[in-house]
UniProtKB/TrEMBL annotation:
Organism of derivation: Mycena metata
Residue ranges annotated for the Cdc37 N-terminal domain, each copy included: 2-196
PANTHER family: CDC37-RELATED, HSP90 CO-CHAPERONE CDC37
Keywords attached to this entry: Chaperone, Cytoplasm, Kinase, Transferase
Protein's GO biological process: protein folding; protein stabilization
GO terms under cellular component: cytoplasm
The keyword Chaperone appears for this protein: yes
Main subcellular localisation: cytoplasm
UniProt name for this protein: Hsp90 chaperone protein kinase-targeting subunit
């Protein structure tokens, strides 16, 4: 196969091989000038390429936002005049600007952020529109409509100009890069082959919390045990389970240095978060999202709402990336960095709802901690058939038919008993009525567990009296304070007898 030597045509020589001498200038000076000229042009070309790339990237972020504003002004909402929309947008950028900015800019300098650039443009368009309307000398009735049209025309003009600027910079960048590739420099030299094996970087290990969460989600082995039938069975967890829960809580709030730094990135700084993830692979690991939520809970509990919300925000970033499948993070961040308002609104709404739910959980946890925990009422039985449910379906009918063996009973007494059962049932809370109608002990316990002890005891007495849940027939013991006292008194009477 013939060798290809055409690449050597791209060499840019800076020695004396192609320098023609001058009788009044020594050749060494000419060589130095030639070398300096080559290096200066090369550095200038690199600077131009970097500048064009940065400017194109910045304009690609601003262009869809400006285009969206122009579209809203071009087809105004009848309920909201164009001038009101424009002024509210300017006021929003002035009061609550985002610190998101192009790489290398200072986020604390408003004019260097995306919102600051957009605000400057809107002010410029607003001033030009006011000047044009004032110069035209319109009446007060026509001023609002004329000003709105001038704002729409001004934004449309800037959309066209920005599109032309992007196309022009893209063409210039292509020419600069093409010129750069014409010359081989020391930066283009690289090893063709190497006999040294460089192993790939190992995948970052998942956080300890990931394994423990997987363990808690696995189905537990069913075992058969004998339990004593009690009313108001205490919620006592095994010591081993309590230890596991404490370790789980500790691991959730325990952040690695990279994840802790990631959690401190401001809200809506999507570009900054994406760069951080690209530079720190150990942020996108199993358990990272749960650890951030745990840190958010702890921060809210410690009265640090700002940091807590940041942790929720960053946790949901990782969750969204995971849910979007392969290259999910890339898809998510491209939408956010490009300024997709619909996608950003959906995400930020999820952040607000998740944070509000977390705040409510922290509030309940703090209240329970102040009260030293809650005592609850629960029903338990060794066999499900021991607890029977006699749920009335309605009031007693007008004509009662007594069954076999009940002929001697007073029909009016039976009617009053059935009416009492129905009245007691309808007087129960709606959620307890629905739970009783399922005739499932688990569902009834859920409702009883949410009640205060006094209220639950009183309801259980009414259920027993009406025969809806007849404890006396099932052999279930009443372990409430009142039940224990009654049982002790009955035992004392038996001993006396």
């Amino acid at each position: 196969m013939p060798l290809n030597y055409s690449k050597w045509d791209q060499l840019e020589l800076s020695d004396d091989s192609d320098i023609e001498g001058h009788p009044n200038v020594d050749k060494k000076s000419l060589i130095r000038w030639k070398q300096r000229d080559i290096h200066e042009k090369r550095e200038q070309r690199k600077t131009n390429i970097a500048h064009l790339r940065a400017q194109i990237a910045c304009n690609h972020v601003l262009f869809p936002r400006i285009q969206s504003i122009q579209s809203s002004l071009g087809s105004p909402d009848s309920d909201k005049p164009r001038t009101v929309y424009f002024n509210s947008l300017v006021e929003q950028l002035e009061r609550n600007p985002s610190k998101e900015c192009p790489p290398g800019n200072d986020p604390d300098q408003l004019e260097q952020t995306y919102d600051g650039m957009l605000l400057s443009l809107l002010r410029q368009v607003g001033q030009a529109a006011n000047a044009a309307v004032k110069e035209a000398g319109t009446t007060d009735d026509q001023r609002e409509e004329k000003l709105g049209k001038a704002l729409a025309d001004g934004m449309k003009e800037h959309v066209v100009r920005l599109r032309e600027t992007i196309d022009k910079d893209t063409k210039s960048l292509e020419e600069e890069e093409k010129e750069q590739k014409k010359h081989i420099t020391s930066e283009d030299i690289h090893d063709g082959f190497s006999n040294q094996y460089v192993p790939p970087k190992p995948e970052p290990a998942p956080l300890p919390i990931a394994a423990k969460l997987d363990k808690t989600t696995k189905p537990k082995t069913k075992t058969t045990t004998t339990e004593i039938e009690v009313l108001n069975a205490p919620r006592v967890e095994a010591a081993a389970e309590e230890e596991e829960e404490e370790d789980l809580d500790d691991d959730i709030a325990n952040l690695t240095p990279s994840i802790e730094a990631f959690s401190k990135i401001p809200l809506r700084a999507f570009e900054q978060s994406f760069r951080f993830i690209q530079q720190h692979r150990d942020v996108v690991v199993p358990g990272a999202s749960d650890s951030l939520l745990g840190a958010a809970f702890k921060a809210q509990y410690d009265n640090k709402p700002k940091y807590s919300k940041q942790c929720v925000h960053q946790s949901l970033l990782l969750q969204y990336g995971d849910k979007l499948g392969v290259d999910g993070l890339g898809v998510f961040f491209r939408k956010m960095i490009a300024g997709d308002k619909r996608a950003e609104a959906v995400f930020m709404d999820d952040v607000e709802k998740t944070y509000a739910h977390l705040v409510e959980r922290v509030k309940r946890s703090q209240e329970e901690a102040k009260q030293g925990g809650r005592e609850t009422i629960m029903l338990a039985s060794e066999n499900e058939g021991d607890i029977t449910f006699n749920i009335p379906t309605g009031p007693p009918p007008d004509e009662l038919v007594m069954g076999e063996g009940m002929e001697d009973m007073d029909i009016e007494e039976v009617r009053r008993a059935l009416q009492l059962r129905w009245d007691i049932f309808k007087g129960l809370p709606d959620n307890l009525q629905k739970a009783l109608q399922t005739e499932e002990l688990t569902e009834v316990n859920k409702v009883l567990g949410s009640m205060e002890v006094d209220e639950a005891e009183e309801i259980l007495q009414r259920l027993d009296m009406a025969g809806i849940i007849p404890f006396s027939e099932s052999g279930v013991r009443d372990e409430t304070p009142a039940g224990k006292a009654a049982a002790a008194a009955a035992a004392a009477d038996d001993e006396v007898d």
